[in-house]
Hints:
Elements: E1 2-5, H1 11-21, E2 27-31, H2 38-48, E3 63-68, E4 73-79, H3 86-91, H4 94-98, E5 103-107, E6 121-127, E7 133-136
Parallel strand pairs: 2-5, 2-6, 4-5
Antiparallel strand pairs: 1-7, 3-4, 6-7
Helix pairs in contact: 1-2
Protein name: tRNA threonylcarbamoyladenosine biosynthesis protein TsaE
GO molecular function: ATP binding; hydrolase activity; metal ion binding
Keywords: ATP-binding, Cytoplasm, Hydrolase, Magnesium, Metal-binding, Nucleotide-binding, tRNA processing
Amino acid sequence: MKINIKSLDNIHAAAKLFLEHKGNGTVFAFYGKMGTGKTTFIKALCECLGVDDVITSPTFAIVNEYSCLQNNEHIYHFDFYRIKKLEEVYDMGYEDYFYSGHLCFIEWPELIEELLPADATKVTITTNNDGSRTVEF
């Protein structure tokens, strides 16, 4: 499926559409160049899911955990950009997150691709010539 985000004004509508069509998967691997809006889109997804916490990129923490007020679920937001060795991911106990049944939104998954569950959903965000973004999954 492809979703076009023309501007930040319609990012929440795009996030709602994504959530309506995401299927039953729980692990979503977000691919895209630096600055394409991965964090911004994940923030919109979390807001649409009822997260009331401050949503930021977990660049230095590697993972942020958010609570979803609607159903007391957890959402895990990962940023593996600064990972140097897979041992760092093993040490953080990635399996506990990826196989928890809770939503996992992963930025820079290409750095840990061999650890992703086989059923992880690949989400690609690209920047178009007109500045809009396309989310494809």
